[in-house]
Automatic annotation (TrEMBL):
UniProt similarity note: Belongs to the synaptophysin/synaptobrevin family.
Residues covered by region (Disordered): 250-290
Entry GO CC: membrane; synaptic vesicle
The organism of origin for this protein: Bos taurus (Bovine)
Pfam families linked: MARVEL
Parts of the chain that traverse the membrane: 106-128, 140-161, 205-223
Topological type in the membrane: Multi-pass membrane protein
Protein name: Synaptoporin
Key word Glycoprotein present: yes
Localization: Membrane
Calcium listed as a keyword: no
Domain MARVEL: 20-227
Keywords, sorted A to Z: Glycoprotein, Membrane, Transmembrane, Transmembrane helix
Length: 290
């Protein structure tokens, strides 16, 4: 294959990255890079909002379009907006509840670093393969980093899934309406005009767990490139070779068993015919003397 370009059939030349490489028109990309991009783009680039309506008994005090906007990193307690109190011209300042910035920022950070490492590893493996395999350091580093990123993807995706659940609860229009004093009066009518769209955030969680499956599934392929795998193969093969050689040396060798250790009937079952003849001659001579 041409240097710097990969075809689908060329994947067999990259055993430790066989699940990572594919060719696109823009150049060489990997599933690790694409999934990481989708993960941090759908989460880090999110901005949404909801719209509420407060219809006071006194129509002049009503506000039928109250917009509440929020975005990444979801520090919802810092999101404030003003609503009518339906008690004159006085307005109430309300803020959302919750802070999911830690889980969201951790998730995006893992995605960004996973993308950068995957990009760097692909470049090293393609253009500096001799350096990669020198002293077995490249495969060992790759194996350790792959295990670490698998763990980080699992933790980050789980934390962000919990954080997203908190964001959905905090931005639920029914929950937000409960924060307004005007909505606690039966004479006023409070409604939700539209709710926030969370489809991209749901997608980010899905891509987070897909990244975990992708990195965790690649651990075996990377492990096969390390010296640990070859040494374990030798360790398993040595006892088998010793067992087979000892079986050939001390096993049932029929030729030697029949020639040297067989049943020598003449030696073990009794005296020979000559000896038997000499023993029978003694009584005969004794008879002649008589």
């Amino acid at each position: 294959f041409k240097k710097g370009k990969l075809r689908l059939g060329d994947l067999r030349y990259f055993p430790s990255y066989r699940t990572r490489q594919w060719k696109t028109e823009a150049g060489t990309l990997t599933p690790h890079q694409l999934f990481a991009i989708f993960a941090f783009a759908t989460c880090g680039g999110y901005s949404g909002g909801l719209r509420l309506s407060v219809d006071c008994a006194n129509k002049t005090e009503s506000d039928l379009s109250i917009d509440v906007a929020f975005a990444y990193p979801f520090r919802l307690h810092q999101v404030t907006f003003e609503v009518p109190t339906c008690e004159g011209k006085e307005r109430q300042k309300v803020s959302l509840i919750g802070d999911s910035s830690s889980s969201a920022e951790f998730f995006v950070t893992v995605a960004v670093f996973a993308f950068l490492y995957s990009l760097a590893a692909t470049v090293v493996y393609i253009f500096f393969q001799n350096k990669y395999r020198e002293n077995n350091r490249g495969p060992l580093i790759d194996f350790i980093v792959t295990v670490v990123f698998s763990f980080l993807w699992l933790v980050g995706s789980s934390a962000w899934a919990k954080g997203l659940s908190d964001v959905k609860v905090a931005t639920d229009p029914k929950e937000v309406l409960l924060l307004m004093s005007a909505c606690k009066q039966p004479s006023n009518k409070c409604t939700a005009v539209h709710s926030p769209v969370m489809s991209s955030l749901n997608t980010s969680v899905v891509f987070g767990f897909l990244n975990f499956i992708l990195w965790a599934g690649n651990i075996w392929f990377v492990f096969k490139e390390t010296g640990w795998h070859s040494s374990s193969q030798r360790y398993l093969s040595d006892p088998m070779e010793k067992h087979s050689s000892s079986y050939n040396r001390g096993g049932y060798n029929q030729d030697s068993y029949g020639s040297s250790s067989g049943y020598n009937q003449q030696a073990s079952l009794g005296p020979s015919s000559d000896e038997f003849g000499q023993q029978s001659a003694a009584p005969a001579s004794f008879t002649n003397q008589m």
